Amino acid sequence: MIFSKIRDLLSVPGDNPELVQSQVAALSTQIPMLYLILLLNTLGISVTHFYIAPIWLTSYLPAPFIAICIYRIASWATFRDAAQIHEVAVQRLRGTVHASAILGACFAAWSCALYQYGDLYHQAHLAFYTSISVIVGVFCLMQLRAAALALTLTALLPSVLFLASTGEPIMVAIATNVALVSVAMMRMLFTQYADFANLIETQKQLTFRHRETLQLSDMNHRLANLDMLTGLPNRRSFFVEFDALMKHSKEKRRSFVVALIDLDGFKAINDLHGHAAGDRLLVETAHRLNAIVKPGIVLARLGGDEFAILISDEQASSDFTSLGETICEALRVSFNFNNVVVTISGSVGFAMYPDAGATKEVLLEHADYALMYAKQKNRGSAVVFTQEHETEIRMLNRLDQALRHANFETEFSVALQPIVDTTTGATKIFEALSRWESPKLGIIPPSDFIRAAERSELVSRITLNILRKTLAQMENWPADTNISFNLSARDINSSETILKILAIVNESGIEPNRLMFEVTETAVMTDFDQASDVLRMLQRFGIKIALDDFGSGYSSLGYVHRLPLDVIKIDQVFVTDIETNASSRSIVKTIASLCTNLELDCVVEGVETQGQVNALHDLGCTVLQGYFFAKPKGPEAIWPIVDLTKGGDAQLRNAVSG
Ligand code: C2E
Ligand code: MG
Ligand code: MG
Fold first, then answer.
1. 473 CA distance to ligand 3 centroid (A)?
2. pTM value surpassing 0.70
3. In terms of CB atoms within 10 Å, which of 117, 165, 336, 459 comes out highest?
4. Model confidence over 572-612: pLDDT tens digits?
């Protein structure tokens, strides 16, 4: 028990690397000092005893001790680098314990051997030499308790016993003195060593906590600035970069470019294939974009399927249009998830500082405008914001202002356009189209004012206005007149508007089965689930649903069967060149057979010539709408034509027989 305790006290534990390193660091400066003192003290003894003691004792014997001291000084002085290796450091500490024990014993024995040769002065010198050297040794070895203890046991204890054994009163007094000092010194050694070990432990804990804090703050930084799904910088980080770049560019009078990228058809993928597929698509998109952008270009995910780019340096700014094309090309490549191949596209809107705006807000608004422009006019392309867009925005803003102050009752009217069943010549249904004549701006085409109105909730006022006015007049129209209305994305995404629509229909007393609502693909794709819920509800009410402008938008046949539809209206872009373009013909044919398969009615819009009517008949399309039959007109102007069509108008007869 006691032996194992002593063994523990004399051993160097190697399980605490931080303690070992700190011990080595402390000892590397103290031990050379200790050996130097020992060496000089030993030389002092040799000199004072040179003429009174035999030469082998004053010179030959201490010579190797002194050589060992010099060697130990050198080896400790050059030990720093090797000490980094834990095992080597532990080895060195254990060696130090052994060296302390052996050298301590040797020097003590040498000192005792010299004792008999001198007078009392010499003997006092020896007693002083031994005790002071050991005390210095213990102090220098304070951080390595085992070595200090070993030295005390092998050098101090024998020397004290030796001095006490001489019986000389002065020597006995010195021995007693040294013994008392040693007891105090041992106490100090134990407390100092414990404090030292505690200090190292505390430092270790502090370092650990500090590292933990750094890790946490790094994680916080990542959470705050990185998009967790794609690993790209997030919206917050993008705006920080944007502000910095804006400031820098203002100061240096340099240009820069901001681009917004939005995936076309992403929502449909999410709705049809699930959110996991949507997530994978976003991750893959981020990879593709990352592979394209050069260093120095900031790429971030702003949220959803919206990404953004900041191109800072002027060299890159000059060829940003080709970067836009590369991005669009990369996003057109099909994505393959577990054997499900999906094809989407991405549109890009660019705005350049300072041409397209001098503030962050304006630049972003204009990049967004360019993006929307790309989406509407040429899906999957890159558009740079230009002066013409600026003019267009001003026009839209002017229209917006005029619309806000418009008197909807007097300025807005309804135009009807028949949709004709060319097999019978009868009008199946009329499409109600809004007309606006502003006292300030004159007649504005619907393509313009609907676009301006769709930027805000104003469009729903137009929808409700035309619905209310038309239903009020329907009582006076022939009983079998059916009417189709257009709904915008905002209408179907607002439960409030839908409820108002249902209330208006209800109050009018018109049978819901005389009504149809047209929605575009784009409107449906804004929120597929919400759109299909709303359309299903309208359908349950008895109202028919048509998918308007089909083929001009996402042109994805995949989702059609999941929508509650009664009619598909094929967009007029395919009709314009139907006589000359085989691919237009094949698209129309495909959509027509899709309608047959899904038992939906098929209407073709924008029919202007007899040739187009014939071509459409060849493809099996017989329900047609267009200027060839009648332009949209006010109700009073349409009835004479419709009466004619019902009676067999010349134009229609031709169309039917042709
Ligand atoms: P839409 O719903 O596709 O309506 C058909 C558009 O094509 C109408 O344009 C009509 O005048 C035009 N059109 C019909 N036949 C022909 C043709 O043979 N050739 C050519 N070139 N065009 C033809 P309009 O009245 O200018 O309306 C444009 C768009 O504005 C509509 O497209 C519809 O999306 C929107 N719109 C019109 N009124 C309303 C409304 O009250 N509410 C909503 N939300 N949108 C409306
Ligand atoms: Mg329509
Ligand atoms: Mg249409």
1. 23
2. no
3. 459
4. 999 999 999 999 999 999 999 999 999 999 999 999 999 99
